[in-house]
Task: inverse folding
């Protein structure tokens, strides 16, 4: 499914944060926060928080994460 590149970057950063190593969590959280802040700034909305944006994207993220997990499983099964 084709998505907006800005949305795709946020979803990937969110996925990386949730699936990354604990040692990398701080850097991944910073990247996600920066992308969310940039998106809010680009929208011109001043009354939207990063949390509000993440809540609004939750369903889209679930679809994205499910597809990523399926992709990872398929990649792993090809290695066997």
Result:
């Amino acid at each position: 499914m084709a998505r907006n590149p800005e949305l795709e970057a946020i979803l990937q950063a969110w996925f990386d944060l949730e699936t990354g190593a604990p040692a990398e969590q701080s850097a991944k959280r910073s990247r996600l926060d920066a992308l969310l802040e940039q998106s809010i700034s680009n929208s011109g909305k001043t009354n939207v928080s990063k949390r509000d944006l993440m809540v609004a994207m939750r369903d889209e993220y679930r679809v994205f994460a499910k597809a990523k997990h399926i992709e990872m499983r398929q990649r792993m099964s090809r290695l066997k």
